[in-house]
């Protein structure tokens, strides 16, 4: 009898621990949908096809990494009509909603976005090195999403060509 009571106590305390319903399976280190800034363990090794690009830890590092990319990366896509045309396609799919059709930051989503999307026609953007804009597209910004998964590497360069030719302030 005493044993049964003991077992009962064990069983009920277990049930009490599980209430409210345990979310253990939800709260784990795995990446959740729509989650940005995926940090990798420093010793993890990319398996294949992955761009080895470290995730900056703060805004200062974002700025530093952008400038560094501007100095180090060369645009492999020459500024041809085809390249600009391809860039326009990509821009309309991914960027127009926020940055707007002339790059002013007044796209349908852009108008409601906080902070407002950068005006891409300004000197601030237009005078950036290709690699710097490429870096922003690849990694996103402070509030801007990243596109390293959604846009092929070469298309990101076509996009840079489009931004720097067609969106320049007239
Ligand atoms: C969800 C809205 C959104 C989308 C989509 C978006 N951006 Fe942005 N973008 C922003 C915001 C907000 C900023 C300014 C704040 C920041 O850096 O995050 C910005 C900033 C920028 C900058 C300036 C970064 C700097 O040097 O300070 C560039 C260049 C840029 N975006 C290009 C693009 C391109 C190209 C695309 C398409 C692949 C794109 N953005 C898609 C919201 C967006």
Descriptors:
binds heme C; 170 residues; 45% helix; single chain; Cytochrome Bc1 Complex, Chain D, domain 2; mainly alpha
Strand-helix topology:
Layout: H1 2-17, H2 59-72, H3 81-94, H4 96-99, H5 123-126, H6 130-139, H7 153-166
Helix pairs in contact: 2-6, 3-7, 6-7
Summary?
By secondary structure, the protein is an all-alpha fold. The chain has helices at residues 2-17, 59-72, 81-94, 96-99, 123-126, 130-139, 153-166. It has a domain at 59-166: Cytochrome c-like domain (Cytochrome Bc1 Complex, Chain D, domain 2).
Number of strands: 0
Bound compounds? heme C
CATH class of the domain at 59-166: Mainly Alpha
Using the CA coordinates, give the radius of gyration. Answer: 24 Å
Give start-end ranges of low-pLDDT stretches: none
Coarse shape: elongated
